[in-house]
Amino acid sequence: MPRVRKTRLPDSARLWQMVSPGDFINGYAVESPLSPREAADIGLSMPGWASALLRLRNAIVRPLGLKTEVSDTGEGAIFPVTFEDSRELILGADDSHLDFRITVLRHDGQIYMATWVHRHNLLGRIYLALVMPFHILIVRDSMRRIARHSPAIASQPPAQ
Fold first, then answer.
1. Distant-in-sequence, close-in-space partners of 37: CB < 8 Å, separation ≥ 6
2. What residues contact 82, with CB distance under 8 A and at least 6 apart?
3. Would you tell me which of 13, 50, 120, 160 could form a disulfide with 46, CB atoms 3.0–4.6 Å apart?
4. pLDDT at 10
5. Is the separation of the CB atoms in 12 and 107 below 8 Å?
């Protein structure tokens, strides 16, 4: 199985157009023949434990007036797609405390997944600090699932 590694998102990623000084951005990569859409479908289909964390998050932040429901953009989607082409898929949402995007990029035989967060205020800073350990667990798990699916998909004949 290909190894997941923490890495910088390639400079060619469209997501860099959103990044300002002080914003949070992190990234991971794994060797994979998948398209960005295929990788996102696999990586963002939340396992039960991650869905439970999301439900807990929603229960906690609902009284604070933060968004707890995001429109679905297709089967299994969690966040709305804001950009898509053959190389990159960007999804995410804006809220009163922060804006975030997740990008899934195919570049040089690798699938990259990066998260960008622009914090608007103190609540955004506190929120990001509190969710960061869970964010890392979820993203690494997403990339491991992409890595596990990659060899099986690569060995299948092309669709007719």
1. 84, 89, 104
2. 90, 91, 92, 101
3. 50
4. 97
5. yes
User: Tokens 């699916």 sit at which residue?
Assistant: 149
pTM metric for this prediction: 0.79
Residue 43 near residue 113, CB atoms below 8 Å: yes
Torsion angle of the four alpha carbons 18, 87, 95, 56, in this order, in degrees rounded to the nearest 10:
-130
Q: What does the alpha-carbon distance between residue 9 and residue 78 come to, in Å, rounded to a whole number? A: 22
* DSSP class per residue in 5-21: EE-PPPTT-GGGGG--T
Helix axes 122-154, 48-61, angle to 10 degrees: 160
| Neighbour count for residue 50 (Cβ, 10 Å) | 17
Q: Nearest-CA neighbor of 58 among 46, 48, 47, 70?
A: 70
Residue type, 110: Q
Q: How many CB atoms lie within 10 A of CB 35?
A: 16
**83-133 pLDDT, tens digit each:** 999 999 999 888 888 899 999 999 999 999 999 999 999 988 988 898 888
Cβ burial of 158 (10 Å; 0-12, 13-18, 19+) is exposed
